[in-house]
Amino acid sequence: MSAFGDVGTTRRNLLKSSALVIGSAALLPALQSCGSGSGSGTVKLAGQGWVYDPTFHNGLAKQYAQKNPGVDPEFTFEQGEKYLEKIIALYTAGNAPDVVFAHDNDIANFADSGYIQPINGMDGWEDSLKDLIAFDRTGLDYKGKTWGMPYYGDVMAFIYNKDMVKKAGISEAPQTWADVTEQALAIKKAGVLDTPFVFPMDNTSSRHWFAAIHGSGGNMFDEQNKPVFPDQDTTALQFLTWLVSAAKAGVLDPASLGLGTTTGMQTFQAGKAAFMTDAHYDMKANNDPTKSKVPGACGQYLMPSLTDSGPHKTIGFSAAYCVSAKTKHTKESWDFIRYLGNSDANRQLFLRDGQAPAYTALQNDPQVLAELQKWCDPEIANKQTQLAYRQNGMDAPWFAQWQVFNQQQVQQAVLGKMSPRQALQASADKATELSKQ
Description:
The protein is of the alpha/beta class and 437 residues long. The protein has two domains: 11-153 and 318-385, Periplasmic binding protein-like II (D-Maltodextrin-Binding Protein, domain 2), CATH 3.40.190; 155-314 and 392-435, 3-Layer(aba) Sandwich (D-Maltodextrin-Binding Protein, domain 2). 41% of the residues lie in helices and 15% in strands. The chain is built from 19 helices and twelve strands. It has helices at residues 11-16, 24-27, 54-67, 83-92, 107-112, 125-129, 134-138, 162-167, 177-189, 206-215, 235-248, 261-269, 282-286, 330-340, 343-353, 366-372, 378-386, 399-414, 420-435; strands at 43-50, 71-78, 99-103, 116-117, 141-142, 145-146, 149-161, 197-198, 275-279, 298-301, 314-324, 388-389. Helix 3 links the parallel strand 1 (43-50) and strand 2 (71-78). The longest helix is centred in the last third of the chain and has 16 residues, at 399-414. It is globular and about 70 Å long.
């Protein structure tokens, strides 16, 4: 969704680092005064977002202004990899926006830094959120408070190339990771593709790893962010053991070690993957003849599990519109983000870019269903979304740094340089070490 939605940079350290705001004073002349009112009495609201689809958000701002002539919202956008630096610079320079974008794993950082304010108690806040899908709702909460309205939410999916599967004579969905091995070997034996399974594993791709763990109902952390792997919850150990076996069997594409979500998607679009984990909304591009060499061939199965019984869950990830703690126009800013995050705006985003609807009612919306049918199976897509949940640990200040280390241990195990147990024990020890700093 943005360039930094699944990165390994230590976000909490970024927010604390004075190095990133050196020179912020030099930015002062270029930064507009946010949240000021015009002489006509119109309240001007400044929104700060990352570059993903500025046309969409500028369009929403215009829609809102037409319906609320006393308020004039305007967005500024920054490239995703520079977004946190921009936020720090704005707040440090005293030019904080009225409304900001935040990924679910940024909300804790922004709240602790005093950048955003909770919406609890604001007019109609509870009714505005009552129909949200579970992981979208959870992603808005931190320390017992709610910090925004939903921007988007989506899930990690297990996708496959329909044509390759058909050529290998496969007619049933793989229920387990062992089934994936068996079917990948059949595809390999049929001469369709030598290494059919792609599983992105670079340092930015932890969502793929967590989706597989959650697919079997496992977790790596408890609610206090303490590691429960590799022994208290053995799911991670079992999956990594399977992943290593898939590499040894020659069905895991070795290029996976250097792939992230975007490059993984490009691999699928190039016709170099029969099975892959991917962000669900990428299915739209994967089936688009203007973007993919395998248009119409991308299908979806529920996330495989370690056992036949499932539960075939996955992780959900999301982002939010938040009210700045520094705004002079809290009431107007809240009303604006309530508009940005309502179900109608969410529908517009889905129809335009393919992100899964954040509201339960939209899963049965005729427009949404008609669009979904163009590039995926709505029944499977909606079921996987309902089975998604937010991973534990994301609010810990050390989580971003740890997840990079964890990815490195996974890589070492797949390369045969460490056993799965050694790799995960090192990862658990690192989490414990970081939590004490």
